[in-house]
Amino acid sequence: NLTISGPFSISGNRTLTVIANTTLSGPITGTGTFTKAGTGTLVLNNSTPWARNSAILQLTGGTLTLDGAALAGTDAIRVFASGGTNLTARLFLTDGATIDVGKNTANLRVGYTGGDATGTNIVDLAGTIILPVGGNGGKTQFGVAGSNYLSLLPGGLLATKDVEIAAGGVYNEFNFSGGTLQAIQATTTFF
Predict the structure, then answer these.
(1) Cα 52 from Cα 27, distance rounded (Å)
(2) Residues 6 or more apart from 109 whose CB is under 8 A from it?
(3) pTM for the complete prediction?
(4) What are the C-alpha distances in Å from 168 to residues 111, 125, 155, 190?
(5) 74-85: per-residue pLDDT in tens?
(6) Given the DSSP bridges, would you call strands 88-94 and 22-25 parallel, antiparallel or unpaired?
(7) Residue 157 contacts by C-beta under 8 Å, 6 or more apart in sequence?
(8) How far apart are CA 53 and CA 3, in angstroms?
(9) In 3D, which of 49, 103, 34 has the Cα closest to residue 73?
(10) How far apart are alpha carbons 180 and 35 in whole angstroms?
(11) For 6-54, what is each residue's pLDDT tens digit?
């Protein structure tokens, strides 16, 4: 296990490839797309505030665990295994972790375009994801790539405009295991 202490300023489009279990401890600032790649686990804990306004958070392999971390002002959240066959990309929020998406065109995408058809894409939510109201964003979208799973676990909250299942995904599954699904805007096509 490796722990790296910051603060961290990550600007531009950057990829962090994690092979071993790694924890980032300290504030993260900057703009641009942040991609977590590799088969290892990256942990952002409660001493890792995220102040990356309009930054896209992408997960293309391994696990990104938010253990009490608070990410505010993010752009889209994309979970899609890519870069090889039979990979898994998992986003896990626990212990009060929150992602508050600030851009009104942004969505939570499980199985984003560009992912591998043999990949497995997972969001396990025992924390909170709040998507934006207004604009054409605020949606939870199951994509066209791979097998896609979203589980609302005890203590989990997903506040979304609606849930969309795209045609063409290998498999899509939404599990209710004790969490809360909250509609944030009136719509005729919530699920």
Answers:
(1) 10
(2) 76, 77, 78, 79, 80, 141, 143
(3) 0.93
(4) 11, 24, 31, 20
(5) 888 999 999 888
(6) unpaired
(7) 125, 127, 128, 129, 130, 179, 180, 182
(8) 25
(9) 103
(10) 28
(11) 888 888 899 999 999 999 888 888 888 889 999 999 999 876 667 666 6
